[in-house]
Amino acid sequence: MTDFGRLAGPSLLRLVDEAVIMNRDHTQFNGRMSAEIWDSLEQFLERGSSAVSEPNRFGCFLMMDPKNQLSLHTASRYWGCAIQAGTQVSGVFGIPLPDSPVKSMEKVKKEFSPLPFAFIPHLPSGSPPDWNAIISSSASADARNLLSFPASQGKSMMPSIQFDAARKTVTLFMPGFDKSEIKLYQYRGRSELLVEAGDQRRVICLPPKLQGKVEGAKFMDRSLVITMR
């Protein structure tokens, strides 16, 4: 945020608060300095970010058509975007056609490994789906299990960041992206990496033993491997 934004922001927040809440004698920003307002706002955002990053408090799932390549690509992209946003996907739901071969379904499962995967019966078109009936059917046993234990499944997810001080590498798990879409920056005395993928940015704080200049990066097995020096 620019210096002008930090200076003008608290005043704008006061105006919005007073305009939206007209029946109060005072607002939560009355008498507070700009620095105090920013501290409160940053603490609020940090609490929200912390909740989203904990699988036992927040879970999200991918849903796609296993026979539709665009659907597969989009689901994989959302997976990578969720990681960039600081959260973890808890699992994947596939909605196959009735005549879908078993081999192709297993191939799709491998593409989204290590995420837990469950199939939901094919949804008929022409009327809104009855989700209670769909989830309670015998064919949706795996889906019910997947929805019942998102927290324990989240703990077994592949870590989005791996630091290897011995090899001087930082490995970022980034499914759905390729190397040409990823931009890497350094700032703050080379103690942090700024990773830009798609329309999202993510700051990676480096441990002391890995702080330094980026020597190179390569993309392999859905991961960006960054070598430091």
TrEMBL record:
InterPro entries assigned: ArsA_ATPase-like, ArsA_HSP20-like, HSP20-like_chaperone, P-loop_NTPase
Domain of life: Eukaryota
Domain (ArsA HSP20-like): residue spans on this chain: 169-228
Family, similarity comment: Belongs to the arsA ATPase family.
UniProt protein name: ArsA HSP20-like domain-containing protein
